[in-house]
Specification:
Layout (H helix, E strand, L loop, with lengths): L3 H6 L6 H8 L14 E7 L8 E6 L5 E7 L15 H12 L3 E5 L10 H17 L1 H4 L1 E11 L7 H5 L5 E7 L9 H4 L4 H6 L9 H5 L2 E6 L7 H15 L3 E6 L12 H17 L8
Parallel strand pairs: 3-4, 3-5, 5-6, 6-7, 7-8
Antiparallel strand pairs: 1-2, 2-4
Length: 286
């Protein structure tokens, strides 16, 4: 999953065409029924402007659990917004064909200014929209998972310290998890905000001790400060005794979920199993 942040900090900056080719690669796992998924495109949430739109991928059965896909930071010059990238469209179809209402939504997480406070407000608004529109979405708002990619990782900090109605599980794919190790973020955030948006700093809370967390680590990630933050999160999670499920992909680069590699498929299948366990009826964190 490439985002504008990653394109800009990479050692070799790709062209716009290269960037779009990468983000349009589909997720590496397929399951039966992905071609039959119903899609409700470009629906408004929150303020309802162009920055606040979502696509819903429906499994075709009422009362299905919900998976929100939280993209990473994008600059204003990116011509196609994340929910319309091929990678998120394929993730939506994969999850819907696996029995979940998948929501890919645009939010204000940015680059170089991450605009985390604004993006956090958008996440709250998206969750409220899921609750209000549960019937037309055929969704069960009491069974929600939040999945953050790359620079979207800091938006998992508040759900680790504060109860979010219906949120039963969290997941991160190659995410930023400790902004105390990220000078890039520290240029734009106060010290208090750096801590508040660092999931690694929230693992001693009662909520974190009940919240299942799936983490996919790219062993060859070259994005500055991601691996130190992930490793700090893992160490703190083990010390605090929180329910962490860790999958390390030792040879994988950042954004590996489109790579048709056996270990990639293993990680993706494990993620679907994680969702099945923690979003099944009658379960709750802890």
């Amino acid at each position: 999953m490439l985002v504008a942040l990653l394109a800009l900090v990479a050692a070799t900056e790709p062209s716009a065409d290269d960037f779009m080719e990468r983000v349009n690669r589909p997720v590496a796992l397929t399951v039966p029924g992905m071609d039959r998924v119903q899609v409700l495109p470009d629906r408004p949430y929150g303020p309802g402007d162009k920055a606040h739109r979502f696509d819903a991928y429906l499994p075709g059965r009422p009362g299905s659990p919900v998976v929100l896909l939280i993209h990473g930071g994008v600059g204003a010059d990116v011509p196609v917004r994340p929910k319309d990238w091929g990678i998120y469209r394929s993730w939506g179809r994969l999850l819907a064909a696996s029995g979940y209402v998948a929501i890919a939504f645009n939010h204000r997480l940015g680059f170089p200014d991450p605009m985390l406070a604004e993006a956090d407000q958008d996440l709250t608004a998206m969750l409220e929209t899921v609750r209000v529109q549960a019937r037309p979405l055929a969704a069960d708002p009491s069974r929600i998972a939040l999945v953050a990619y790359s620079a979207g990782g800091p938006l998992l900090a508040r759900p680790l310290r504060q109860e979010f109605p219906g949120v039963r599980a969290l997941a991160g794919f190659y995410p930023f998890l400790d902004l105390r190790k990220s000078p890039l973020h520290q240029k734009y955030l106060t010290p208090d905000a750096v801590t508040a948006f660092s999931p690694a700093a929230q693992l001693r809370t009662p909520v974190a001790h009940r919240m299942p967390f799936f983490l996919a680590r790219a062993g060859k990630d070259t994005i500055p400060d991601i691996l130190p933050g992930i490793d700090a999160f893992v160490a703190e999670s083990l010390a605090a005794g929180t329910p962490l499920t860790l999958f390390n992909h030792p040879e994988a680069p950042h954004g590996f979920d489109h790579d048709p590699d056996p270990r990639t498929r293993e990680v993706l299948r494990a993620f679907l199993a994680f969702l099945a366990t923690h979003l099944s009826p009658g379960t709750a964190p802890g």
